[in-house]
């Protein structure tokens, strides 16, 4: 039997792609430092897989522990992309290259590459450390309102939003352990739609799966509460921008999840994620495609290309489950015959906070329809059937 090595898997539905691999005749091998957690998960869901428990999730630790050569290395979680890329490189297997990952991870490097295209970007600057804050005039350099994003990693909407210099001064008077320098400081384009473009690149070419709208809410409107896929407005503009960006970062293989702000028919790059989307998106996309996104992912990484170039047949919507107050969820009842995928992050009972960040969501409901006009009513009716008890 052929084996597929997974460097952990995605967070919300970690076993979904394992089942897809097994259904296609592959045996999953999961490299993880969380052996006990994975062992319990696999046992509860009756999944036959091999756990490769390593002391560190590092390329050499994984390669040293690997008992056999896999036919593919699949990395879905953002924080492990470079690890997967290095393991795949040493095994001579398809993966998004390390240099492409690096140019996407460093926001300043991404901005420099995209500056050579026609794609617009919000005004931005790099702030190296807290002392550097005294040497710049943010109102002239970037302009208010603005957001602070860590230079490395991904944080689409920023972790700190400011409307005046006094707000910035007050914030940075706090203790230093609150900060994550260096930062990219970026002008905040307000009253814009946040939309992402999903797809992949292989030797056949660029394939767009579609665009996702991103419903925002919570404290500061920075929490992603779901969205619609495919989202048709601005599709042509977003595809054109994405083609330019893919050329600029020299991506010849791998998935992309590129985020944009759109206002007044103008497209502005938010960030480039060189991976398939996570959270509720895989289920949302699969529902719309009328088939499994995981099958496409497996084809891409096993064969180095995907012969399947699916496009959406339906329209799907994801809606977050969250609480407006803190407390303990004591019970969640989901009817068996519900026409939706329902993901719950923990077994009851579990504690929840009022919705202030993505971490405060405790689940998602995903459903689809032939008609986008019917989606909202359909998901609202489904949400009413889910009984959530909080104390």
From TrEMBL:
Record bears the keyword Membrane: no
Residues in ATP-grasp domain copies: 111-302
Keyword Ribonucleoprotein appears in the UniProt entry: no
Source domain of life: Bacteria
Entries under Pfam families matching the protein: ATP-grasp_3
Documented EC number(s): 4.3.2.1
UniProt keywords, alphabetically: ATP-binding, Ligase, Lyase, Nucleotide-binding
InterPro entries hit by this protein: ATP-dep_AA_Ligase, ATP-grasp, ATP-grasp_PylC-type, ATP_grasp_subdomain_1
MF-aspect GO terms: argininosuccinate lyase activity; ATP binding; ligase activity; metal ion binding
Name of protein: Argininosuccinate lyase
